[in-house]
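Run folding on both entries below.
>entry_1
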Amino acid sequence: MQDLVKERLPRFTPDEAKVVKGSADWIGVNQYTTEFVKGQKLVQQRPTSYSADLQVLLYISIYYCASSLIYSRNFAVERNGKPIGPRKSWKNFVLPGMDQPGNLTRDQYLRDATRVRYYRSYLCELKKAIDGGANVLGYFAWSLLDNFEWMYGYTSKFGIVYVNFNSPTLERHPKASAYWFRDLLQH
């Protein structure tokens, strides 16, 4: 990185470097999508840009949801040779499981088999990573409840519990994925 961004990168004093070195005892990963990365020398742009500084070609496998809000990208995160997330051929997709479009009936929302497949696949691969030596401290499914999405308001359904935002009491109904998680956690 120092060779790439040169003087734009702040320099640490020797004392600052000592303070920073080894100071992180926990790193959290908040993953929305995954992109494949291939090293590629890019022409430096003026003014400089984040994308040019990366010096990589990003390859994205996309399977669009009906809502086009969230699309699945094959998971291929790897750290020190230990995979985290489903490793599939670039031609095989892990179907999106987080988002449901805002034009389904309540019963359709409650039968979210795609979300169950997504979580099952993701957690099976996470277990393989743990078995392979990855030090995983926890996992949070997004999200417990359908909620407000900045770009699409209440029409995008992320939760394992359906929320009727047209109800004065915001009535809630567990989806199939909520029951799947319950059964998983009871074992």
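>entry_2
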Amino acid sequence: DFLRKKGIRDKVKIIFTTPIPKLFPFPEASKFLLNMFEQKSIEHLDPFTITSVDTNNKIIESKEGDKIKFDYLFGVPPEIPTKVLRDSGLVDLQSGWVPADKFTLRYPKHDDVYVLGDITNLPVSKAGSVADAESSIVVSNIVNDIRGYGLTKQFNGNGLCWVVTRIGEAATFAFDYSHPPSVVSPPSETNWWLKLIYNRAYFSLTARVAL
């Protein structure tokens, strides 16, 4: 949108790379993104597992043998546990994640430790909405366990995220353990505003209610 407003979109080549062998690992979500990329003339190369970045010559190379020359590179660094977690001994060194029971969110080796957020080994998106959903389960289970009721709440992997499709427009995706990510609300201005409002109101509304 920014490039179009500047009148230079036709002079810019955008390439999206990902290390997984398709744009997105789930069919419906992948189809949605592929259509959006096609409409916006965005190329994609996958799998592309970055092995080196030559900042002098502005070239990135992949394990698969591909090379891309760039003017601007926008990269997402690998997710790694913080030092305090690495030093705690909770991290599984082979996977790099902290194990958690997928339903109770309790750490397998310690009854008084719970895990939530991006660092878990759970098969769910690393989205803020997931951490939010996990937090209510953890709070309830800690309280109920202290009261002697046991772990009565179970996490079903539910989450929701807004995918920005253009400035002023977004689509809503939803998912859980039984249902892969799918579009539950198509691109609209309403979703855009819901995303902005929720991001600003989270700590004063949702988080406070959860606590």
